[in-house]
Amino acid sequence: MVICPICPHSLSFRPIVVPAGIELTVKVSQDSRLTAWLSVDGRNQHELHQYD
Q: Where are the membrane-spanning stretches (predicted)?
């Protein structure tokens, strides 16, 4: 699996290659004032909330 930042604000944000079979955990910061979105294969978009 490859994790690619969309519209990164720095050239240092590079894609990350993750081995097969690895479970990923995504957390929304408690201090976040904005909505977080997860896009899978550029098609499915899911809004993320704290404690999802």
A: none
**Residue 44 tokens, joined:** 């499915």
Q: For the chain, what is the total number of helices (H) and then of strands (E)?
A: 0, 4
Q: What pLDDT tens digit does each residue of the chain (52 aa) get?
A: 888 888 888 888 899 999 999 998 888 888 877 778 888 887 888 898 877 7
pTM above 0.85, yes or no: no
Cα 25 from Cα 18, distance rounded (Å): 12
> How far apart, in whole angstroms, are the C-alpha atoms of residue 35 and residue 18?
25
